[in-house]
Design goal:
Number of helices: 9
Strand order of the largest sheet: 1-2-3
Strand content: 25-35%
Largest sheet: 3 strands, antiparallel
Distance between the termini: 17 Å
Shape: globular
Low-confidence stretches: 188-195, 213-217
Order of helices and strands: EEEHHEEHEEEEEHHHHEHH
Number of strands: 11
């Protein structure tokens, strides 16, 4: 994506932000239902990150009366990080109860495991190496804190918790570009976090459907 004056350019497609018809078409496709302020914030993040909604890198979801949420796909987070002038590398993995893990003063000293029986999932971590920092930046997320037990969390729990760890860590390290965004594995919608089990299940399915529709555009 590039920006020319008041125009967003995605490959061969151009959107003139001063053209109300083009702007409304873009909003209906990638930020339907969002308020003017929410849509403006969405456009600002697109400009800052240079992510392309047509390539499934970024999209906006408005669910009921909840604030609009800006989602960035895994490849989008990686793209922003790798294009940053201070990025060196990052890696991630899941931790299970039978793994050998040693963490000291916020540093991962050892993580060793076999592929036979790793036991229950405990969480996942992401490590980022950034210029200007002597040590790697280590961040761990707890499985129980994020696991909804529904949808993809039920079928692909390791993948989901690793996505949370990666998104959260890259967002933390490169916050000037990624603050206020979420990976689709992070369900911050109120109905997913509260309410009865049936309400949470329904909300999770609806949010996943909305997200999938955005990605299928």
């Amino acid at each position: 994506m590039s920006e020319k004056n008041n125009t967003l350019v995605f490959n061969d497609l151009q959107f003139d932000l001063a053209n109300k018809e083009q702007l409304q078409s873009f909003k209906e496709t990638y930020a339907k239902g969002s308020s003017i302020a929410e849509f403006s914030n969405f456009i600002s993040i697109i400009k800052a990150t240079k992510l392309n909604p047509f390539k499934r890198e970024i999209w906006c979801v408005k669910y009921k009366d909840n604030p609009a949420q800006i989602f960035i796909g895994r490849d989008g987070y990686r793209k922003v990080a790798k294009q940053h002038k201070d990025y060196i590398y990052h890696r991630l993995d899941v931790i299970c109860e039978n793994d050998e893990v040693e963490v000291e003063n916020g540093k991962l000293i050892k993580h060793k495991y076999s592929f036979k029986d790793r036991g229950a999932i405990l969480g996942a971590y992401c490590i980022v190496k950034k210029k200007g920092y002597e040590d790697e930046i280590f961040n761990y997320v707890d499985f129980e804190e994020y696991n909804t037990g529904m949808s993809k969390w039920k079928t692909s729990p390791k993948t989901m918790i690793k996505k949370v760890a990666e998104a959260q860590t890259l967002r933390m390290v490169f916050d000037e570009l990624l603050e206020g965004t979420y990976d689709e594995s992070e369900n911050y919608t109120q109905e997913v976090q509260t309410g009865s089990e049936a309400e949470r299940e329904k909300a999770s399915e609806i949010l996943e459907k909305i997200t999938s529709e955005k990605l299928d555009k």
